[in-house]
Amino acid sequence: MLQLSEAEVLERIQQHVPFEAQLNDGSLTIRISEYQPYIATAIHHGHRLRGDLMPNCLLTEEERYFEEDPFTGDFISSLPIVLQGEDSRYEYDLNRAPENCIYDEAWGKPVWQTPLSDEERAVSLAKHSCYYRILACLIDTLESKFGLCLLYDVHSYNYQRIDRDVPVFNLGTRQVNTRRWRKEIDSLVGKLRNIELPNIDVRAEVNDVFQGMGYQASFVKANFANTLIMPLEVKKVFMDEARGESFPLVLEKLRAEMKNVLTEHAAETILRRTKVKKLTSSHVLASKLPREVLKLDRQLFSIARGVNTLSYINPLNIKQEKRRFLHRPYDYQPDFTYRQLDLDPFKFREQLYRLPVEDIRDADIQAMYRKVIDQLAVRIDLLTSIGSDEFLYNSLRYYGQPDQNDIANANFILHACEYSEPEEETITAQEAIQAFKLAAEEYGVKCKVAGSKQLIARAMVSGRTIKVNQAAKFNRKDLDALIHHELGVHLVTSANADLQPLKVLKLGLPGNTHSQEGLAILCEHLSGSFPLHRLKTLALRVIAVDMMVKGESFNETFHVLKHDYGISNDQAFTVTARAYRGGGFTKDYLYLKGLKDALHAYAKEDLTSMFIGKTGFEFKPLLDELITREILKKPTYLPKALAMKDTSDPIIGYMLKCIK
User: Fold this and answer.
1) Strands of 465-469's sheet, edge to edge?
2) Do the Cβ atoms of 29 and 150 come closer than 8 Å?
3) DSSP states of 34-87 as a string?
4) 98, 3, 79, 93: which is closest to 41 by C-alpha?
5) Cβ atoms of residues 71 and 126 within 8 Å
6) Distance in angstroms (rounded) separating the CA atoms of residues 455 and 204
7) What is the pLDDT of residues 222-275, one digit of tens each?
8) Which of 118, 298, 393, 603 is 20 to 30 A off residue 499, Cα-Cα?
9) Quick one: which H or E segment has residue 654?
């Protein structure tokens, strides 16, 4: 991090230069990733006491820490302009006026063994004055640029010594012109009341425990007519105030919630108080990709780029075992063999968990990478257990299993009567390969299309390659469906991911199987290439996975699918093998579940951001935000099915509306 003098800091602010630095005496951290009309401060965040004062201090580190505001800098780390105090309030209190900012006694305890000398006091007072010169310069710059400035003045407070129920959030407004800023005050309190924290009943009040009478509020009130300061006290529900230990889950949630609340409030206020016509919370966040995110993203991709689940799980001897099984379908158990894992799982996990995720300051981006890392660790457990009894357990961890709703949806679909004869399968694999190549040219996407003898599926995408099962035959509608599915979604999202600055979108976000397959089948439906037998295949996969999870044998599942649902030997074997490969692969139930969720999302919102890479529905709000912030690019390619005139089958449409 840069070490700058006060003069260098002031010069950068006056010239509107984004920067991140500490004052060269270490007293203040300043982060300006983009000039927006709001500031967040954590002036009591720090614990540092300069060396020459330490021997004279009567208080232990624990006693000082108790009255400081640890972690308050973390609450605001996602925001574009942050001032974070690094010195202990016991050296000088930035929220007190200069004449009484140095404690002789605090909270009933003497602070110094011998009174501080004039020289010692002068050093601390100089730091106090420096902070307020920097703050004044920053507010003046923002007021001049935007005509308005907001200052979120964040603190925390001990509550266990208070003999009554106190709110989690306390907004102090005694030094605020409440008549002028009433809507802003009410809005902020309302948003704070909607925050959800794990196992905590959240209340937000105005002037309940604290009145907002600190010096920072006095300074702003006296010097800046167009700046609204909001002193906000957070109850120390995020830590054990007596022992000083943090509660990481509460802190993580609080960081994310504070980001959302403060950016929404800032955007709303700017929209109301200035001539800006359109603004969202995403617009008031930084539009430059943070360096720490880019660095971690590259490291993660370098570690995980070769981990392709299906390339390890697809059996190498599928054709031979199919032939043997169909010759003896009542007593032969397929014995599948698999590709050897060519990476060290222990080293892989070690590298994953050494990645510096804590360096990412944006709460939502950090949470996304944490989830990606956890998912990759489970994926390695899955791959290392292929062919063993542990594989099913790891598959359940990674993909989950069908619930009663999924099974009910599958049974509902399987009760439907066929109302048209399926087309004859006359298209060869070679003809299908040519059709894929032509479709890729129409999309303008560069890719390789090749035949494969190792697929269970009829076609699949791996990176920029479309693989077609050489033993398969197709009818026209099924081939169109595969083109919209494999090329229109899976290949398109791979191509879009290649154009993004974040390579994690090539690796895949958690839940990407569920969302990708759901969107792909949605596109089959929208294109009019989604017959009932295809929908029934998705339902059969749910039944097969459910039987496998319940402990039924490969043979039992095969015969139920064949005899109870009237499908061919080939289809029954394929559906069963997909579920039983590896030792119990639960992924296939997600196709129907993903379709249901994709349909619901398609009916309610614009799905454009879901096609920028291997995304998950859970992350759509963050992806939308990052596109608005211009950190991520809008997708270059989109599925053609989304722009087609609705030619979907009305009977299928009705059935899909009925699944819950």
Assistant:
1) 448-452, 465-469, 459-462
2) no
3) S--SEEEEETT---B--TTTGGGB-S-HHHHHHHS-TTHHHHTTTSSEEEEE-B
4) 79
5) no
6) 58
7) 999 999 999 999 999 999 999 999 999 999 999 999 999 999 999 999 999 998
8) 603
9) helix 650-658
Q: Which two tokens stand for residue 272?
A: 């109301």
Query: Cα–Cα–Cα angle for 224, 226, 230, nearest 5°?
Result: 85
DSSP letters along 363-384, please?
Answer: HHHHHHHHHHHHHHHHHHHHHH
CA gap 78, 639 in Å, rounded: 34
| β-bridge pairing 28-32 and 81-85 | antiparallel
> Which residue type sits at 140?
D
- Distance of alpha carbon 538 from alpha carbon 598, whole angstroms: 15
Cα separation of 585 and 391, whole Å?
Answer: 8
Tokens representing 478 are 């099924």
What span, in angstroms and rounded, lies between the C-alpha atoms of 207 and 214?
13
8 A C-beta contact, residue 591 and residue 484: no
460-506 pLDDT tens trace = 998 899 999 998 999 998 899 999 999 999 999 999 999 999 999 99
553's CB contacts (< 8 A; 6+ apart) are 333
| Cα distance between residue 491 and residue 637, in whole Å | 10
